[in-house]
Amino acid sequence: MNSKWRGDVPKIITGNSNPQLAHKICEILNVPLCKSRVTDFADGEIDVHILENVRGADCYVIQPTSKPVNHNLMELLIIIDALKRASAGRITAVVPYYGYARADRKPAPRVAITAKLVANLITGSGADRMITIDLHAAQIQGFFDIPVDHLYSRPVILEYMRGMELNNCVVVSPDVGSVDRASSFAKKLSAELVIIDKRRPRPNEAEIYNVIGNVKGRNCFIVDDMIDTGGTLTRVAHTIKEKGAEKIMAFCTHGVLSGGVFDKINKSPIDELVITDTISVDVSRSRKVKVISVAKLLAEAIKRNHNKESISELFI
Predict the structure, then answer these.
(1) Which of these, 39, 59, 224, 234, has the minimum number of CB atoms within 10 Å of its CB?
(2) Are residue 120 and residue 75 in the same domain, yes or no?
(3) Beta bridge partners of residue 40, listed in sequence order
(4) Same domain, 159 and 264
(5) Residues 16 and 147 in one domain
(6) In a domain, 5, yes or no
(7) Are 69 and 164 part of one and the same domain?
(8) Between vectors from CA 313 to CA 130 and to CA 104, what angle results, nearest 5°?
(9) Does residue 206 carry a pLDDT above 80?
(10) Number of domains comprising the chain
(11) Strand pairing category for 272-276 and 207-212
């Protein structure tokens, strides 16, 4: 990447959620990682110390709010507060995976809208901007009173899909809520779209009623924003395999990977699960799981933000 900066180079700071991604971004941008110390007291409280001068600097905090979500969220807030009190010029929260995003409305009385609550916390801590990837619901951008750059992992995943050189492919939406995402992949690949009619009677449980479209003899690309317990994804895979699908590949931006997800994936007809490194995960428990990086995408967004250049062409 051509890292010609306007003015001083940006400061890249990381918490303990995904330092590997922060190091990749710094390597691409050819800038050093800002020296900092993010540790815990004996009682679990978080202690943050920025170890170099950031006065007037353009600062980017790399910290997905993945599990342990509460701890990583607090690290993010405290790092932002430390930078604010150190007179940083501008603070951008780079949150590749935005936790608590699944509660983005009130589906029943007396429940919280945590996606809005977390937006308030990030804004209130002192962030001037946020960069994120594949929000669970696009309207979450509107929960913020600061600018949000909502990037998509689609270019990274499409590059991998095309590299597989498979023919006779269809793109499968695992539920009605993912139709827009799946449709955009189908359009880019000039492939047909298949929609799964899925209902969720309880959290982390899914029931499939219909498959809308033809998967018989087709290579199927299931696309979704995240995989948590793997219940939905594996049920969809079993269903389309029964309908005659050939190869089944699943592509999920965020690998939350909770509970017995690896056992489900290993026993499922999924031939390969591709996730990105928005979340730091150990995938050694399954040979079916492959990780591709969004570091170049985030690095480009940081560079353009710092140089006050348009990043609209990244929103594809």
Answers:
(1) 39
(2) yes
(3) 46
(4) yes
(5) yes
(6) no
(7) no
(8) 40
(9) no
(10) 2
(11) unpaired
Q: Is 174 part of a structural domain of the chain?
A: yes
146 located within any domain:
yes
User: Cα separation of 101 and 165, whole Å?
Assistant: 34
142 and 19 together in one domain: yes
Q: Distance (Å, rounded) from C-alpha 198 to C-alpha 25?
A: 37
Structure confidence by residue, pLDDT tens digits, 18-41:
999 999 999 999 999 999 999 999
Reduced to 3 states (helix: H, G, I; strand: E, B; else coil), residue 103 is coil
Instruction: Enumerate residues 6+ apart whose C-beta is below 8 A from 194.
Output: 170, 171, 172, 173, 211, 212, 213, 214, 215, 220, 240
Kindly state whether residue 253 falls inside one of the protein's structural domains.
Answer: yes
Residue 81 lies in domain: 11-152+295-314
Q: Are residues 197 and 236 in the same domain?
A: yes
| CA dist 193 → 178, 182, 183, 264, 266 (Å) | 11, 7, 6, 25, 26
137 lies in the same domain as 164: no
Integer Cα distance of 219 and 242 in angstroms: 14
Distance, CA of 91 to CA of 122 (rounded, Å): 11
My answer on whether omega of the bond before 96 falls inside 30° of 0, hence cis, is no
pLDDT in tens, 216-234: 999 999 999 999 999 889 9
pTM over 0.85: yes
The angle at the Cα of 26, spanning 22 to 32, to the nearest 5 degrees, equals: 110
Indicate if 283 and 306 belong to the same structural domain.
no
Which of 11, 24, 198, 264 is labelled catalytic? 198
40-68 confidence digits (pLDDT tens):
999 999 999 999 999 999 999 999 999 99
Known catalytic residue: 198? yes
Q: How far is CA 63 from CA 8, 35, 159, 205, 278, in A?
A: 23, 15, 25, 29, 9
Rounded to 5°, angle at Cα 218 from 221 and 213? 80
CATH number for 36: 3.40.50.2020
